[in-house]
Amino acid sequence: MTGRALADACGKSFTKKYKTYKITKEEDGTFYPFVFNDIMGLEKDQGVCEEDIKLAMMGHVRDGYTLLLNYICISQFNPHSTLSRDDPYYNTNPSLSDKAHVLVCVVSANEVHLLNHDAMKKMRNVRLEASDMGIPQMAILTKIDEACPEVKADLRNVYKSKEQ
Q1: Taking residues 66-73, what's their average pLDDT?
Q2: Is residue 94 included in any domain, yes or no?
Q3: How many domains does the chain contain in total?
Q4: Residue spans of beta strands (DSSP E) within the chain
Q5: Virtual CA dihedral for 64, 68, 72, 74, nearest 10 degrees?
Q6: Sign, CA torsion 25/106/132/57
Q7: pTM, whole model, 2 decimals?
Q8: Helix (H, G, I), strand (E, B) or coil at 50
Q9: Mean pLDDT within 14-40
Q10: What CA–CA distance (Å, rounded) separates 68 from 158?
Q11: How far apart are alpha carbons 61 and 74 in whole angstroms?
């Protein structure tokens, strides 16, 4: 991968902008025929509005849609309201390539127990919408070695771990 999404270890979403990542082919400098779109997380009162995630899955959110906390910004993720149709970052006529084809939820294993009821409800609602749109889904659990001492000692114990 030639570029990676930035991450933070503080338990808050680091993503402030809806960002598209392309993967470069090594042999000829062209790109693979798929992209990854990164969106802000679901923190309570500060995370992305679930309606914005649904709009992004339908292809209505343009690359660069931003959240700037404590600053004035015309186009921003807002946990209390969704992207409006008259916003310049609203894509009125999304093409097939603008739409999501897989929904991936990334959760840190050592913080999964911190997910509150509101975040879980948002995740469920987004997943139900993705199902209605026929979008396959997957979850990626990161930092599994930090969540369980048994796994940290030997990664082969990952499927034997009893950590909840």
Answers
A1: 45
A2: yes
A3: 1
A4: 19-24, 31-38, 103-108, 137-142
A5: 20
A6: negative
A7: 0.74
A8: helix
A9: 84
A10: 38
A11: 14
Closest to 149 (Cα-Cα) out of 105, 106, 115, 109: 109
Residue that the structure tokens 């906390």 belong to: 69
Asked, for residue 1, whether it belongs to a domain, the answer is no
In a domain, 49, yes or no: yes
Q: Which domain holds residue 93?
A: 19-157
Q: Is residue 136 part of a domain?
A: yes
Q: What 3-state DSSP class applies to 140? A: strand
What is the spatial distance between Cα 143 and Cα 154, in angstroms, rounded to a whole number?
A: 14
Dihedrals phi, psi of 19, to nearest 5 degrees: -125, 135
Integer Cα distance of 156 and 107 in angstroms: 20
Contact 53, 13 (CB under 8 A): no
**Per-residue pLDDT reduced to its tens digit, 70-110:** 333 444 455 555 788 888 889 999 999 999 999 999 888 88
- 8 Å CB contact between 126 and 53: yes
Residues 150, 161 contacting (CB under 8 angstroms): yes
Distance CA 71, CA 60 (A): 24
For tokens 């897989």, the residue is: 102
The answer on pLDDT for 66 being more than 50 is yes
